[in-house]
Amino acid sequence: ITVDDNINTDVPNAFTPNGDGKNDVFKVENTKYHKLTDFSVFNRWGQLVYHNTYNINEGWDGTFNGVPQDMGVYNYIIILSQPNGQLKQFKGTVALIR
Question: What three-state secondary structure class fits 76?
Answer without folding.
Answer: strand
